[in-house]
TrEMBL record:
Gene Ontology molecular function: any one: pullulanase activity
Name recorded for this polypeptide: Neopullulanase
Pfam family, one: Pullul_strch_C
GO biological process: carbohydrate metabolic process
Alphabetized UniProt keyword annotations: Signal
Keyword Signal among UniProt keywords: yes
InterPro entries named among the record's database cross-references: GH, GH13_cat_dom, Glyco_hydro_13_N, Glyco_hydro_b, Ig-like_fold, Ig_E-set, Pullul_strch, Pullul_strch_C
SUPFAM superfamilies to which the protein is assigned, alphabetical: (Trans)glycosidases (SSF51445), E set domains (SSF81296), Glycosyl hydrolase domain (SSF51011)
Keyword rRNA processing attributed: no
Amino acid sequence: MRFAVISRLPAWSRTLSLGLLGLLSSSTVASAAEPPRVTLVGSFQSELGCTTDGDAACTSTDLTYESEDDVYQKSFTLPVGTHTYRVAIDGGAGGTYGAGAALDGAEIALTLSEPGSVKFYFDAKSHWATSRPSSAPKAAIATVAGSFQSEVGCPGDWSPSCLRSMMQDPDGDGVYVYSATIPEGAYAFKVAMDEGWATSYPGSDVAFSVPAGGSGVTFQFNAETRVVTFKVLSAPAGDINLARAHWVSRDTLLWSPLEFPEAPQLKLHHDATGAMVLGSTGIEGGESLSLEVDPAGPSAELKAKFPHLATFKALKLPADALARVPELLQGQLALSLTNKDGKLVDATSVQMPGVLDALYTYNGPLGSTWSNGVPTLRLWAPTARSVRLHVFDSSDAATASHVADLAHDATTGVWSLTGEADWKNKFYLYEVEVYVRSEKKVVKNLVTDPYSLSLALNSTRSQLVDLDDPALAPAGWNGLKKPRLDAPEDIVLYELHVRDFSINDSTVPADKRGTFAAFAEKASNGMKHLARLAGSGMTHVHLLPVFDIATINESRADQLVPAGDLVSLPPDSQDQQAAVNAVRDADGFNWGYDPYHYTVPEGSYAVDPNGSARILEFRQMVKGLSETGLRVVMDVVYNHTNSSGQDARSVLDRIVPGYYHRLGRDSGNVETSTCCQNTASEHAMFEKLMVDSLVTWAKYYKVDGFRFDLMGHHMKANMLKVRGALDALTLEKDGVDGSKIYLYGEGWNFGEVADGARGVNATQLNMAGTGIGTFSDRLRDAVRGGGPFSGLREQGFASGLLSDPNTTDQGSTDAQRQKLMHYADQIRVGLAGNLRDFRHVNKAGATVKGSEVDYNGQPAGYTVDPQEVITYVSAHDNETLFDAIQLKAAPGASIEERVRMHNLALDLVLLAQGIPFIHAGDEMLRSKSLDRNSFNSGDWFNKLDFTYASNNWGVGLPPAGDNSGNWSIMGPLLANPALKPSKEHIVSAVDHFNEMLRIRKSTAAFRQRTAEDIQSKLRFHNEGPGQVPGLIVMELNDEKAEDGRTSVVVLFNASDEKQAFPLASYKDKTMQLHPVQQGSRDARLQEAGFEAAQGVFTVPARTTAVFVNTPAKGDTGCGCSGSSGGAFAALAMLLGGVLMSRRRRTQA
């Protein structure tokens, strides 16, 4: 993912001296003759094989000249400490260069807080030297990567690893610069960090043009602010291809020009046809209005609404021009700035969302509404010159249309038309006449309705439907009763993809496989599996995107399938992924994070994808799941659309160009930090679209929850408005209880909205106190080990850290112990609902709050209520839990031990306070054959098997795109037959998972309702510096527990040894293994026990043992006390196994 912000170009770059230009790299000029040797001379040479430090003659610290990069470079492993160095040329004969690229300059300092690899760089042309530790918190190497690189000597374009376009900072002020002479043409670029695309700036590609004859171009990057700027030195001042000015209210524009001279002359230029151009002396064509600078700057209200513009100049329109504003907004706009002599200083185009909100925010209905069987259509298009409606009798492309004009309300920007009763179920398109800045002209767009409720096949036309039409409701729909839900803390989420669920299930009728309709097939293997989960305690099925998706062909007859017999290929073959990749964009699979229309069910998931049948089938799915005991959650993706601009699959931007998408502050280009075309929910009418859409899904489809993709790209205020709108829904008025609808999302903090840049965004920390959940990466990373962007084989609590290290460097034994204890602290916070104020003793022996436990520089604990955390160790993103265990476990670990690691990881989720989240199939050891990003990897790599015959491990090397760099690690694992689980392993995992669900459901201690309850009732033992590593002991006490379990003790043993742990407070008390575990088929649980005489709890290796003081009301268990490892318990387990087997036969 490539993200960040672009900012203005400062004045210095316009007057860049020839001396500085000569210092900086310019790959279009022949390189100076390379000296025969370049040597690091420093305080660390003796660590690297040299006799002494400071030895320019020692070849052990020579750098290597890379001709492709035209830079000297090499990596060395250095110890902890502060090091210094300079660079000697030709053993010192050619000079020695230090700080500031100065001959005989001061030594360059390098401080390492941990040992590791450091890469050194030296440019012999500029004499600049720098280094990059592998563990550096901030990147030190920046390259300008773009479509121009082949013109400056790189082997290809968009190559962040080509150091010919490396940016340099000779004066050490944190501003990195690269200059080059580039030939005429249109180009684009980004600044990439550390020779790759993991981090880059700004959020979207930056376009620039070089005029005829070529020109010098200077690029600048501020390492502190992450601001990117550039200047084409021979071009006119300014660029009206960019929109760096912002019209924010009727009378105010905000702009930060390149320079601001004395006696500035500012003008707003406008032209209805788009004929204006930027010439050498200024903007040519159109008319203009003079603007005045407001010395007070933006008002407090404007600063609050547009924090990213708070430092901009405020420019005021003359009073006599205010009445013309609506007219001006319909055409081309630009600003110019000249000095007192009339010389052009800067020029730019204008962004308009702020003024559109100020003038045209509308709260009424949009889309189609019905009254007495007659439809009225409304479209918000305030900058349109005309809107016409095309009505079609069918979805057939050859069908001619009936055309009617819509009436315009100048006060709201809404166009409307009341139709005829016989328009019901007909299809339609809007014809919108509007000026498009990117096209520099007025266009007529034929476009679907952004408020569509039904669509033709492949979304070619909208359809007029009435969601209250009885023909669109399954029998019993209006009286459907939802499964009981007493509190959010009772929720357990199961993340499932509609197509994955049934596409391979032979017990589902062929035409219904991969569709909504499969969820109504209650006798299928998949539905029996879900029914068992629901009976054990699963409450909600979270469906990956089910709205209209842009990237799946809805015509099943036209969907392609991989060629060949993939089943017979070797488990480590490249052929499976090659076959899948050959049809990846033409098959029927995609995760679906490509929104096209937000409020229409996806057609490829319907048996009949053309028209309104998809509505009926979606409702049948909701009904089928509800009757199985499961509520339904939709994964919603309002943070971006698939397309923008004039693309054929762009809807919003072809109706109100430049409004619905979030634009770069200093470019006007659509931001893409999400992956795609970012939307701007801080704009009033996108917020309205989002809220209206969610209310429709809740009210008309009875959806019980919403998971917000990249929720941190929305504002906190958006989410609170959504919460309020849903809370207003009642059973009496709307047929649904909106207060029971649960909201949660990804609260990641990055991109152009990071840290509140566009307003208080809906991030993990910001959402505390709202009751809206966020995914916690804290427990996830601690349990698995590492993180999504760290080493594949980095171990964690459940994957063998310290107790069973793998063959990669996990650090010294003591370093592993310290890391494992820190992971345990993070897990304890997670088990306590990730509460920011929960107190426990950390690994150093200090009593700390959850917010004081570190997670990569952030607080581990951040919630104020347990319902605000989503606890998970696996989701659709990244490797499945099973695959992660396979990568991280020690090579000698048996498949049986790996399954136990897997089970233990899920136990930590299911027994945590807050809301557990399970990736579908994790309970079945789901594998994607090590694919870390299966969004477009087809049915082959995403397969679910509810017969439990296979978990999909070893079905070939995963697709090359995101995985080929690790094939050398993956191949031997996939080829090893000892690592493939059997059906017995899978069944045992399913049984274990259901047991843990039943424990959570039957034991109220694991579902505390408030932070106060958790703080007063939950405590941990085995803490502090003297703890037994790999063992977490959790105690829950509630004298008023309604289920009678006033004491619960849980031991999570991740080590490879049995552990006995004494608790003096339990001496002579009566405790027993939880009745569910007494009936477990896991033979190792027979080793678990409690010795009352000493108060000692025993837990087997890689096992979770739950002890309770008395059976809850209605429990069926052995009822024994004292040691639970005796013959009576064994008999109970045997009997429990028989009962479990009978239950499986009746359900499977």
